[in-house]
Design goal:
Blueprint: H1 2-10, E1 16-17, E2 20-21, E3 39-43, H2 50-60, E4 65-69, H3 77-87, H4 93-104, H5 110-123, E5 128-133, H6 143-153, E6 158-164, H7 173-177, E7 181-184, H8 193-202, H9 210-220, H10 224-235, H11 250-259, H12 264-273, E8 279-280, H13 281-288, H14 293-302, E9 306-308, E10 315-318, H15 320-331, H16 338-351, H17 355-365, H18 368-384, H19 388-396, H20 406-418, H21 422-438, H22 445-465, H23 469-482, H24 514-524, H25 533-548, H26 552-569, H27 572-588, H28 593-609, H29 614-631, H30 634-646, H31 656-668, H32 672-688, H33 692-706, H34 711-725, H35 732-735, H36 739-750, H37 756-766, H38 774-781, H39 784-794, H40 799-806, H41 810-824, H42 829-835
Helix pairs in contact: 3-4, 4-5, 5-6, 8-9, 10-11, 12-13, 13-16, 16-17, 17-18, 18-19, 18-20, 19-20, 20-21, 20-22, 21-22, 22-23, 25-26, 25-27, 26-27, 27-28, 27-29, 28-29, 29-30, 29-31, 30-31, 31-32, 31-33, 32-33, 33-34, 34-36, 36-37, 40-41
Length: 845
């Protein structure tokens, strides 16, 4: 919280006017009542010293004070509340981090956030004050209502002070009714006669006669900024008696005095720098074509017109009034080309590899060719970071014709794909593919290969979002034909050669050889070194595989990472499978139906806020039916079925998840014939689409439905499922079939109809129904050496002591425990000790 501490350190000064120090807050003043109210509003036009007097109060109060100054960038909800949380005094750091996580979550709810914040303040009995300066920037913002609600609900030990020029649109009726508001206006801020007398005697070194005081009061009307101007004229040895000015123009007059005191070259330097939001000496020198920046920057700093950046040294920003004045002057300077200045700024940032700022200034310059080139250069990194909205905004500044050019067209395809519009992205990709296939573009062989790779990579990703496993496989193979290594827009998922499995595991309903995908992803593991959109798909795929193999601990670890990345980027294409798998784990592993329902409810809230297509909502609702099937809630199943049949969608790849759910729903209601008829319709479709997991699921479900009436057909169906699943080791699909599947598998073994190469796999399936106790199953997973380590763990020994006892190195002990945690499905020593408490250690003693 370095920024907050720096701000509070700056408050340890009394109010100043020019070089003067005037003590404004008296014991009997209105400021003495500030600590008795939840909310204090300080309302006055510019120049009445709101900020100055608040600094004086902050330095005198015994409360811990936080301070934030609002700018245009803080009007957005996340930016505003983030600034509030970061600068709130008294909050424990862990709670501050938790609140920031809630705020940045895609399932953010203002009501939940405010309730959590108020609970935190009450729990820790936090007391303090938060000053929000320049609050008029928030007018007409939807966050105003949230802020007022928070102030109404927060404990009386906390105080909010808001300062600004006006507070129109703010409703304080409830707070006023409970006498919890202190309203300070400009009448409370004007200088009194006594303060003017003190000023004249101390700083002007004159006799504070009634005539002098009357003259100054007539000119300033008690306005502190006016008094500052008087002081400045006194320093310039002007006769303050002849001074004429108005409240509106005082800041401008102050700025003029400073600007016109500079030489022409220095004025030119400032004017060139005025196009910048943040300044650096080398950047300003580049714009002005000079090296005199250090002298000018030093002078501006001494006059208090530069604000030094707190995050990075060497960077400054101009005082807001000075910057506005300089930009107005710049608009009137015909000899200075403002667009050329923007181009120079863009060029400088590009040389510094700060492409986002380079694009920003290229757009300001209206240089479309430069803007296009920079977007193409920055796009792979920006897409990986999930900054899709920013890319879309920049692309919208370019003429429509650029969307049909290959490089920018591919980027636009990725943007609309990530904006949850796979159909539009598919049309864009098809148009680009047609251009390349016509061979009308004058491209080198290398360029053509690169563009084909990028286009087919885009089409692969679109197919993943559309849940089309066959098309995913086809497009992935085509991309590998043109480049056996990688595409610049999807580097983590295609960095393998053509001899490896070329099947991308689809994340919902899925298709593919699980073992091949797992081997492929193990080779990719060293490349997944940072959080990105693509690493999210990597982790959800591994979580799905671990879940199917019954490795719940491993599945949960990968799922947690995928959930964090999904929340970070807010992509429904990733969030939907993550939430669905999370709900399945909660209902099947933990038996917690309420948690699973809450997860799916959060998913629907997220889909609503992101304006996702209706297909995602249908998947979420179908997942709720799986919970109803687990709970045997026939009413909910029938309600869903009636709605589904009423608006039955065509059978296609994106509706497959709902249709498989439909089969399970009819099976749960014992409507055997209807379920079998849908299986018959779906089977050719899943085979053609390469949906291996869905095909196995349908064969197993069909076998269960046929077993009582047609045993031979049931066993034939199960043999088909085993044939498809043996190489990939599908497990959970069989376990969900229950005792009927176990009986059929045992019957197949008795009839010797299980091929020898499948025997071990079938035994693994049957082990799930073993009569051994939970502890016996755990013990069977551990080797004798691992059991020895677990026993030492039960004795409460540390790793170094275990290493000495068993004559092992410390590193070997750590490796052993890593394996033990994975086998037991736990994360740490405490959990391992608890779960292994009932094991039999007699054989190692």
């Amino acid at each position: 919280m370095r920024e907050r501490k720096l701000t509070l350190d700056q408050l340890a000064h009394t109010g100043t006017i020019g070089r003067m120090e005037i003590e404004r807050i008296k014991p009997d003043s209105v400021w003495a009542n500030l600590e008795t109210c939840k909310l204090t509003t300080v309302t006055a036009p510019s120049g009445y010293g709101k900020t100055t007097i608040l600094k004086e109060w902050a330095a005198k109060t015994n409360l811990e004070v936080g301070w934030i100054s609002l700018g245009e960038e803080d009007i957005q909800r996340v930016s505003f509340w983030k600034k509030v949380i970061v600068h709130m005094p008294g909050l424990p750091e862990q709670e501050r981090i938790n609140l920031l996580d809630i705020l940045q979550s895609t399932s953010f709810s203002p009501t939940h956030f405010i309730a959590t914040l108020c609970t935190c303040l009450r729990t820790y009995q936090v007391s303090g004050a938060l000053i929000i300066d320049d609050f008029h920037m928030m007018m007409d913002s939807p966050e105003l209502g949230e802020l007022i609600t928070w102030i109404e609900e927060m404990p009386d030990t906390y105080h909010i002070i808001i300062s600004g020029q006006s507070f129109t649109g703010v409703s304080l009726k409830r707070l006023l009714r409970h006498q919890q508001v202190l309203q300070i206006t400009k009448q409370d801020l004007i200088l009194t006669v006594e303060e003017l007398q003190q000023y004249v005697a101390t700083y002007l070194h004159r006799e504070p006669s009634e005539e002098v005081i009357a003259n100054i009061m007539q000119q300033t009307k008690g306005w502190p900024a006016g008094l500052r101007l008087v002081h400045m004229y006194e320093q310039l040895r002007e006769d303050y008696a002849d001074l004429q000015f108005s409240n509106v123009t005082v800041a401008r007059q102050l700025i003029q005095e400073i600007v016109y005191s500079l030489s022409e070259s220095e004025q030119h330097y400032l004017l060139c720098s005025a196009v910048l939001n943040t300044m650096h000496i080398r950047l300003c020198d580049h714009l002005a074509g000079t090296r005199r920046g250090r002298v000018i920057i030093r002078r501006l700093k001494t006059q208090g017109l530069l604000v030094e950046g707190q995050e990075e040294s060497g960077w400054f920003s101009l005082n807001r009034h000075l910057r506005n004045y300089l930009r107005e002057m710049l608009d009137m300077q015909a000899e200075i080309d403002v667009k050329e200045l923007y181009k120079r700024a863009s060029d400088w940032y590009e040389t510094q590899q700060t492409l986002v700022m380079a694009i920003h200034y290229a757009s300001k310059a209206g240089d479309q060719e430069r803007l296009k080139r920079l977007i193409i250069k920055a796009a792979p990194a920006l897409l990986e970071e999930g900054r899709v909205a920013q890319l879309q905004e920049w692309i919208s500044m370019l003429p429509r014709k650029y969307m049909y050019q290959l490089e920018l067209g591919i980027i636009y395809g990725w943007v609309v794909c990530f904006r949850f519009q796979p159909e539009l992205a598919e049309r864009q990709a098809h148009m680009l593919e047609e251009q390349l296939l016509r061979r009308e573009l004058q491209l080198t062989e290398e360029e053509e290969k690169r563009y084909f790779t990028d286009v087919y990579t885009l089409k692969t990703f679109i197919s993943i979002l559309q849940d089309d496993a066959k098309s995913t496989l086809d497009h992935a193979n085509k991309s590998l034909v043109y480049s056996p290594i990688t595409s610049s827009y999807f580097s983590h998922s295609f960095d393998y050669n053509r001899h490896d499995a070329t099947i991308m595991h689809s994340t919902i309903g899925g298709g593919g050889d699980l073992r091949s995908v797992h081997r492929l992803y193990e080779r990719l593991a060293p490349k997944i070194t940072k959080e990105s959109v693509f690493s999210g798909y990597y982790h959800i795929c591994l979580a799905e595989i671990a879940y199917e193999w019954g490795q719940s601990g491993k599945a949960k670890r990968h799922l947690d990472v995928a959930l964090m990345i999904a929340d970070l980027f807010g992509l429904p294409g990733l969030l939907v499978p993550v939430y669905l798998l999370k709900a399945r784990l909660e209902i099947e592993q933990q038996g917690n139906a309420q948690a699973a329902k809450a997860t799916l409810h959060a998913l629907k809230d997220m889909l609503t806020t992101s304006n996702a297509p209706s297909d995602w909502f249908k998947k979420a609702e179908a997942a709720r039916v799986h919970i109803a099937i687990q709970q045997n809630d026939t009413d909910r199943i029938r309600n869903w079925l009636s709605l589904f049949v009423l608006q039955e969608p065509p059978i296609q790849q994106k509706s497959l998840f709902e249709y498989v759910t439909l089969v399970h729903a009819y099976a749960a209601l014992n409507e055997r014939e209807t379920a079998l008829s849908y299986i018959k319709k779906l089977m050719p479709f899943v085979k053609f689409g390469g949906r291996i997991s869905a095909e196995i699921d349908l064969f197993v479900t069909q076998a269960v439905l046929l077993y009582n009436d047609d045993t031979d057909a049931a066993l034939a169906s199960l043999k088909q499922a085993l044939r498809l699943s043996a190489d990939s080791k599908y497990m959970r699909t069989y376990w969900l079939g229950g005792e009927t599947v176990r009986n059929m598998v045992e019957e197949l073994i008795q009839l010797e109809e299980v091929p020898k190469k499948q025997i071990k796999y079938v035994e693994q399936i049957l082990a799930y129904w073993s009569e051994d106790t939970h502890d016996q199953r755990l013990q069977s997973k551990l080797t004798k050496r691992e059991l020895q380590l677990v026993y030492q763990l039960q004795l409460g020994k540390r790793n170094i002591e275990i290493a000495q006892e068993l004559a092992l190195s410390l590193g070997t002990v750590k490796v052993y425990f890593h394996r033990i945690y994975e086998k037991l499905g736990v994360k740490n020593r405490k959990q391992a000790k608890e779960i292994a408490a009932g094991l039999d250690y007699s054989e190692i003693l």
